[in-house]
Each structure stands twice: as C-alpha cells, then as structure tokens.
Amino acid sequence: MTQQVEPTTRIQVWDLSIRLFHWALVAAIGYLWYSGEEGGDMTWHMYIGYTVLGLVTYRILWGLVGSHYARFKEFIRSPKATLRYALAFSKGKEPHFVGHNPLGGWMVIALLLLVATQGVTGLFTSDDIFTDGPLVHLVSSDMVSTLSSIHKQTFDFILAAVALHVLAVVYHAVVKKDPIVPAMVTGKKIAPLGTTASTLPLLRAIVIAAVAAATIWAVVNLL
Fold this sequence. Notes:
The chain has 223 residues and is mainly alpha-helical. The protein has helices spanning 16-38, 42-65, 72-75, 79-90, 102-122, 141-174, 180-186, 202-222, and strands at 8-12, 188-192. A two-stranded antiparallel sheet has the order 1-2. The longest helix has 34 residues, at 141-174. The chain is globular and about 65 Å long. The termini are far apart.
C-alpha cells in the first residue's frame, strides 16, 4: 500500500519583529558576556543592558497581543501536556509543531525570566570602583551586594540555557531535518496545507516597541 503524503506549503511563522528581537538579543547577550568577562566599556555594558530590558519588555507584551505564533497562549502548554510531549520525544514519536513545541515554549519562558533577572539586578549593581547601576541609590549597600552577586551568578544560568538551546537547534537540524535557524532568518517554515500563517500588525508592533522603550527609559532616568 502506498503511503499518502500530506500536502504542505511554505508559510510565514515568525514575524519580522520576533526575528529582530531574537537576533538583537543574541548580539546583546554576546556583547554583555564579552564586556563583563573581559572588562570592556561598562558604559556601553549598561546601555546594552537597558536595551535587553527593552527587548524583554517588548517580547512579553508581544507574547500577549502579538502575531499568532508569538503569543504565549500558542506555545505554553500545561505541565501534563509538556511531560506527555517529552515522553513521546524520548521515543522519537513526538508530534510536529509549526511554532514552538512544548519544551521549546518553556525554554522561551526560562530564557525570558533569566534575562529579565539579569537585567533588573543590573540596575542595582555596583563594582565598588567606577560603575554603579542607575538604581543603586534606592537600596541599601547590603542589598546592592546581594543583587550584584545574583547579577553575576544569573549569567552562568543564561549561558547554560543558551547552550541547551543551541544543542536543541542542532538536534532538530541534523536529526529531524527541521531548519530552525533559516526559519528564524526568513520567518518561513514548511507546514501542512491550510495551517494558519502569521502576519505582522505593524502599527501595533511600533506602539508596543515605543511603550517598551519608554518604560525602560522612565525606570532608568526617573526613579
């Protein structure tokens, strides 16, 4: 008996703003790692840190009201559903998801929380020599010391999460023949015929980007 092949089509999955967010965050984390480890320009380290906070704020808002596959409700599954997917994955029988699969969805949340923690604690950190975060004056010296320690330690967790993410991408590319990286460049993936495609509500994206930028500016300059 000849097995029928489900007809597929190439659709837009990741909108432009999600792709820009992704690659901007990659570049920003790379710079923050380099400047933090190698003692680069701390002024730019702080500016890029503010940018990361703006990016995370945008992504959270976009996860609520953004394009179809970017919304949290489209890729955050219950613990039970996630465990069921993980068990199927371990047997090589996991279902295909056009957007994030359940494990990938929770990885997105973990990375957002880690990066947000890194960025927020950075506002309260001090190197006790030249550089103080813009909100150091709001907390005690003991709290500054605690938050500075958390700021340093959190980056190790970020690096571990990034390494796990890269391994997952390589696995999908090599074993599953799922070209995740090209999809995050073009925004397009192969999907079953009739699958919902994403569109970019441009005005909404601009408004949310402005809100995110204004929020971080206000936190840094007005508190």
